[in-house]
Write a structure and sequence with these properties.
seven-stranded mixed sheet; homodimer; four-stranded parallel sheet; Rossmann fold; about 40% helix; alpha/beta; 19 helices; globular
Chain lengths: ~450, ~450
């Protein structure tokens, strides 16, 4: 009988990241300075990012060496397992083989640690003492806290106040690892103070928290800023997921017909899919790549392809991407990690060019598949990851209907052990599908910056 | 460089459990019927346990085959990794090699699933449709919920009311897996109703919850009762931990000088230590086996060795074990899994005979070592497991002082992601060491049953 888990030894762990910029038929247009609207150069980014990451952001090298110091930390949990979901296959009565790459085994509980460790390392070698960042639901905050701890950096996390209050467990983990977790808006920054002056009861937003974290980093020479998704260097670091998965599938003499991941800012989808995009672009492999997003925040399926700001305040460079408009306010779905108005420019470009495709689901469908998955395979998935599961379930049913033994790979980007109140809402029938706020979307798209 | 993780393939997973009853120089005296005080026979246990487990309870066979159906579920997460805690070694500047077996990778988050799966299986094959159990903090309730789900059994968990209210996340996991989780005392049983009549605001206790779960099982022919620790068959199922660890250490050309685990009811300590006790008893291996308990509930280090009831109400057979007296009320430490007045008879006997030793620590020391471990290795440990970590740290420091390259193995029985409020208390300085309530202990020991 074939194994349920396909493991790699530490010696088999990839030692290079894959950079899709080497192989894309069309690169995204360059990021623009938010004021001059001219292409942003390294000097525009250097106040808040280290040069090592800035160079990765624009590199055209296909393979980039993973520093030994980063590999050493990766080995605390990597290579992560590739699992065959045999009991799920049986439950669905499908001839398809369903594999999932499980990134929830990281100490942070999600794939976010892959880039957090790399970012902390490059900042450390350039003499930075402290990183600031924002976090919504808290997964990224946990990952950066751990990474900073491993490299002896201080870490300050501005956590959206409503999450800070509702998800105290995530804050606890950050504090165990020595981070300073601050409810945003706070009185620590001038942007925070301005917001609090207008509305002392503000519950915060990701946009506000980004403003505070960037201001914090820009104002101190010992401090840089770190971002957990969207940017090119983040997708680079995440490529280890797909590189490992490809090696593991080869051990099982398998190759996917379809590769699936959820997609918010894009780092998780890029991580698992870009190495297969390489196969598709360079070697002509016939593999479908599916990015799955919430129908309440359908950036790739309903967004505009063009320039937009990465943040709400309009401080960041303009990025070439699919966007719902920075003023779009998505409904309060439980997948906090997928509530972003834009998307990775690299992911956006390959979707635009037809190399990858996108699909959107409502949250009740994704929770239903999450519970089916948990009851079959044991693991309680993060609400974000459940979007990928639901798509894999649909693909497995399609394979059954076509009577074809297709091979499905999806990325289980994290576990849901700190998201259990969401499951309570689902099980008690309180969880609903939010219709897309069409008026709000229309207005947000009308406000896109003119370039 | 040597690997951080030593993995076994699924084909290398042990196919037999180890039964220490085959090799002990002295067996515990037999369990006695609670009323007649005569040795309890299979017929005394059959109203609430399946014959498959009753026979394991008294078996003298050294090796007992793991049924293929149980192995199939084990393969969802087993073999579990053996990790070398290199960064912890460095932090302690010790010449010792510290290995830990990590059972927190199970879907239940702890070692408890090893026996839950086996118990659900043996009940299933004997036609049982439903299991009842009690749970304190909730780890065992999660494990049995998952195991019942895998084998299509219904599951009812009586959860101590104060935990039901304080730890809603654990209840959520049980409900995801389809279990019925009831706050105890409840109005579902006559014993529950009696308690509520006297005190409608009762917050419950493990003793009350056991009474409800046993009454539930005894009253329905389709229902049996399941216990997560203490009993011989539970320690048998857990032996897979130590069997795997021994194989994994052999791959690294290593053998432990000391094997460490925390000890509440004893299943976790037995699981990792009994296969090494075999080496010690049968082959003369020089290995120390250390059971670690809280100084607030020091069963092995301060208890009486003799007969006592397993529960508070006095319904269960009398077990031959170390006990603080069933009426001993331990202080409210955060390691709910270690607050038990008795201990596994098999563990008690080998401690009494000097094959294993016991040690007790206050909780502030264990949380300090838990945070050091998390910051070194990434994993946030369960408060119970942190007792083993603290002992490993002490042993590593002793090795440094003796300048000896000793090999230390401990069992990290579970992660602490559902115990984060305890870490908040520690980090904010609210966590204290409770002195042993000597008067309460003295009275409880005076009440031991006369046999």
């Amino acid at each position: 009988m074939s194994d349920s888990k396909i493991l790699l030894s530490e010696k088999e762990m990839p030692t290079k990241w894959y950079n899709i910029q080497a192989d894309m038929p069309n690169l995204p247009k360059p990021a623009l300075h938010p004021e001059t609207k001219q292409p942003a150069g390294p000097e525009d980014l250097s106040p808040i990012f280290p040069m090592g990451l800035i160079m990765q952001e624009v590199s055209r090298e296909r393979w980039i060496e993973i520093p030994e110091e980063v590999q050493e930390i990766y080995r605390l949990w990597r290579p992560s397992p590739l699992c065959r979901a045999k009991r799920l296959e049986k439950a669905l009565d499908t001839p398809a083989k369903i594999y999932y790459k499980y990134e929830g085994v990281s100490p942070a509980g999600s794939h976010k640690l892959n880039t957090a460790v790399a970012q902390a390392y490059y900042n450390k070698v350039e003499g930075i003492k402290r990183l600031s960042t924002e976090t919504g639901a808290g997964q990224w905050g946990i990952a950066l806290s751990q990474a900073c701890n491993f490299f002896g950096l201080e870490c300050t996390v501005y956590m959206v106040k409503v999450s800070y209050q509702q998800k105290p467990y995530r804050r606890s983990v950050m504090e165990i690892f020595g981070a300073n977790c601050i409810a945003s808006p706070s009185n620590q920054t001038s942007s925070g103070r301005q917001i609090l002056e207008k509305d002392p009861e503000s519950l915060g937003s990701l946009g506000m928290a980004i403003s505070e974290a960037v201001e914090d980093a820009a104002g101190r020479s010992d401090t840089n800023y770190a971002l957990g998704s969207v940017l090119n260097h983040v997708t680079l670091h995440q490529s280890i997921i797909g590189l490992e998965a490809r090696e593991q599938l080869a051990k099982a003499d398998a190759y996917p017909d379809v590769v699936i991941a959820c997609c918010g800012g894009g780092s998780n989808f890029a991580g698992v899919a870009f190495p297969f995009a390489y196969d598709k672009i360079v070697k002509g492999a016939k593999v479908r790549l599916v990015a799955v997003e919430p129908s309440a925040c359908p950036t790739l399926t309903r967004g505009h392809f063009g320039y937009d700001f990465g943040d709400v305040a309009g401080f960041t460079p303009l990025l070439w991407m699919y966007t719902l408009g920075k003023d779009f306010m998505p409904p309060g779905i439980h997948s906090g990690g997928l509530r972003y108005h834009g998307d990775s420019p690299l992911v956006s470009q390959i979707v635009h060019d037809g190399i990858a495709e996108a699909r959107a689901y409502g949250q009740t469908a994704t929770f239903k598949s999450a519970v089916l998955f948990a009851k079959s395979e044991g693991v309680v998935p993060a609400p974000e990851s459940s979007h990928a599961i639901h798509c894999a379930v649909e693909e497995a049913i399609a394979a059954r209907e076509a009577d074809e033994a297709r091979t499905i790979l999806f990325n289980l980007s994290g576990h849901g052990l700190l998201d259990l109140p969401s499951y309570d809402d689902y099980l008690s029938g309180k969880l609903v599908d939010y219709p897309l706020p069409e008026d709000n979307l229309k207005k947000a798209l009308e406000q896109l910056p003119k370039v």
